[in-house]
Amino acid sequence: MRRGARRRRLPRRVRVWAALLCGVLAGTLLLGQLASRPAPVAAQDGGGGREGVPGVTSALPRAALLAEGRRLFAAGCSSCHGDDARGIAGAGPSLRGAGAAAADFYLRTGRMPLDAPDDEPRRKESPYSERQIDALVAYVGSFGGPPVPAVRTSRGSLALGFRLFQENCAGCHQVVARGGITTGAWIPGLQQASPVDVAEALAIGPYVMPRFTRLTPVEVAALARYVTWTRQPDDPGGWGIGHIGPVPEGMVAWLLAGAALILTIRLIGERTSE
Amino acid sequence: MRALQVALAWIGLRLLRRLPRRRPRPPREPVEAQRRRRAQPPEALSFEAEPHRGSELLVAALLLAAALAAAAFVVFYVVWPDTQLLGLCLGGAVLLAGVACALAGKRVVPQETAAEPYEELHDERAVDDVGAIVREAGEGVSRRRLLAGAAGLAGTTIGVAAAVPLASLGPGVDDRVAGTPWRRGRRVVDGDGRPLRPEQIEPGSAVLAYPEGADRDTLEAPVTLLRLDPDTLDMPAARRAAAPGGVIAYSRICTHAACAVSMYRHPLSPATAPDDALVCPCHFSTFDPRRGGKVVFGPAGRPLPQLPLQVNGDGELVAAGGFIGAVGPTYGGSREQGS
After folding, report:
1. For chain A, which residues make up each domain, given as ranges?
2. Cβ of residue A151 closer than 8 Å to a chain B Cβ
3. Span A150-231: which CATH code?
4. From B102, which residue of chain A is nearest by alpha-carbon distance?
5. pTM of the shown model
6. What does the pLDDT look like over B61-104, one tens digit per residue?
7. ipTM surpasses 0.90
8. Residue A30 and residue B5: Cβ atoms within 8 Å?
9. b/e burial code for range A226-252 (CB count within 10 A of at least 16 → b)
10. Which of A183, A15, A18, A204 is nearest to B273 (CA)?
């Protein structure tokens, strides 16, 4: 008698769990569907608006621009980089020869100014206005060094960009450019990076990123095009799951496989009770 | 997607609806009736002991198929070690054997449907009854030898298939451990097959390179070229001489689990950022290129092997010999003393 009663309780429990699992799965799918609906992004190609417009767009005459840049530099940058932009040991490197490319990259992505010299520069909202950034870029650029590169993403092939990204960038930035970590540093996702940001980063190698000086302009354009594409990648598999690879994919597989296994166990283990 | 959701919701609802109610216990049999029933011979228990010949054949066939799949694993492992095929064979073998077991349990072994409330076996008679039931259960299976043979074959071949990768430890099947495509004088080429010159390796960049004209898919082929300031290299003189002009080559393959060591950390401003390192993206083993590839962080137990380089008469980079240290993974937490 007691045995019979115990025998029936197990399937009841299993059913409750299986029903719960089904509910959770259906809910997750619904959420995933909602989440994967394309977010409104300003423009598909060259989104950040910075494409093929290198250099200074300000209306100020050059002398006034440099004077404004010098004033801003003295106020905001010289505590680490020195009054003469030759750097201060242990705080900030010399900017002589860094060029407009480096200044444009660090300032326009908000990576500079830093709160403390040892902080890792991260993308954030810049405290400077566009005009102030133009002035600072012109000032730092006046010490020599590479200019802001011009990028025409329309010249780059997406397929070539993907191949180059896989070979050179995916090791750190992940294959759909979602970023990650390395020892001692965060690695940014590149969904906010404009094509010019990409070209500048390849040329200067910001923070702990190596430089990629062997790439031709066509290859740089292809990479910039691929990076732009990763903002809204196609999902041939159906469901992107954040595009962050095997961990969430594995979790989904385990959840689905787990549900299937429980149902299978239930089928195999069913006893005829009458 | 929507169909999947609807299906899941439907299954969930059905499961909930079919929840069995706790049934009331059947009224307890009077003691007198129990005693009368036990006094009857065991034949009177409802008992299905007819052999299911069709199901037996099916089970035997499944077991033989499992054996075949496991044997195919062994053959593919030696002849054509394609991981997809290997997975298919071994997975198929286990799956087929599992299905055979499930089917045998459902269809071949006699199903006793009697629900007898039994009590402790205290008298001789009851013990004999149980013995008779067990004996009879066996009689419900015909072709016992066929089934036993098929099960034995399947078990043996699956066991052999599971053990056969051990052969890779020896020299016979797979000699990847020993072979290296790098020879003294072999040119170092980039991904497009163009020879590389030392001045093409710029400071702060990492260049993926291969041995000229060799298979690139072996573990020993890919190397990472860096250019470091020769004065900052902290390694024995012989090793420093193997890095002409500060151009140094390391195996691309992590000594922990053989991932590609594809991260090169190079500080733009060395005073405020982490130092140069080669980092493996899988488990973040971190190697110091200035100190002979010494492990400074992570699970790797051995330094990254260095490929000695020299410059030939045409000013091109060539290998000066094989790797310093063994290329490839080391599992099991083994560590090499020093570096």
Report:
1. 12-37+247-268, 56-147, 150-231
2. no
3. 1.10.760.10
4. A268
5. 0.65
6. 999 999 999 999 999 988 888 889 999 999 999 999 999 999 98
7. no
8. yes
9. bbbbbbeeeeeeeebbebeeeeeeeeb
10. A183
